[in-house]
Amino acid sequence: TSVLVLNGPNLGRLGSREPDVYGALDHAGLTLAITEWAAALGLSAEVRQSDDEAELVHWLHEAVDAQRDVVLNPAAFTHYSYALRDAAAQVTTSGLRLIEVHLTNPATRERFRHNSVIGGVATGTVAGFGTDSYRLALSALAQA
Ligand code: DQA
């Protein structure tokens, strides 16, 4: 099974972006880790990152058309992008699974991070385990 792993805005800056909050691993390192975790779980993962809301929306449409499950870290779009929410809803209403992931636990952070407009249309959410959040999401997808 081929899973699409989509990372939203500023996640391409991992490693140099607030490393005390988001960790020292850069996006290339995260991509490698995700690829290896997926393989160990009998999945294959394709990792993409974009700062562009429209591109993320198109990638979610692509997942629907290609019938692929999705792991999505919507980053800041989590908190306000109804366009991303509507695209994510098309994934789950078409019978595919979409796991929302976060490196940090947004519930413990600033108030504006407490609301996710994605959570209500996701299959489930994994947050707060650093890069392990992705491994846990993949493992949930591998279970079913
Ligand atoms: C994040 C949490 C968001 O609030 C933030 O805007 C991010 C990363 C996380 O992975 O912890 O960019 O999605």
Using brief descriptors, characterize the structure shown.
144 residues; alpha/beta; Rossmann fold; 5-stranded parallel sheet; 5 strands; 39% helix; 17% strand; globular; binds 1,3,4-trihydroxy-5-OXO-cyclohexanecarboxylic acid; DHquinase_II_sf; amino-acid biosynthesis; EC 4.2.1.10
Describe the structure.
The protein has 144 residues and is of the alpha/beta class. 39% of the residues lie in helices and 17% in strands. The protein has five helices and five strands; from the N terminus they run βααβαβαββα. Helix 4 (82-93) links the parallel strand 3 and strand 4 (98-102). Helix 3 packs parallel to helix 4 (82-93). Residues 10, 73, 75-76, 78, 102-104, 106, 113 line the site of 1,3,4-trihydroxy-5-OXO-cyclohexanecarboxylic acid (DQA).
The tally of beta strands, per DSSP, is: 5
What is the mean pLDDT? 97
Helix-residue proportion: 25-40%
Main β-sheet, spatial strand arrangement: 2-1-3-4-5
Query: How many strands, which pairing sense, and closed or not: the largest β-sheet?
Result: 5 strands, parallel
Poorly predicted ranges? none
What's the quaternary structure here?
A: single chain
The rounded Rg comes to 14 Å
Distance between the termini: 11 Å
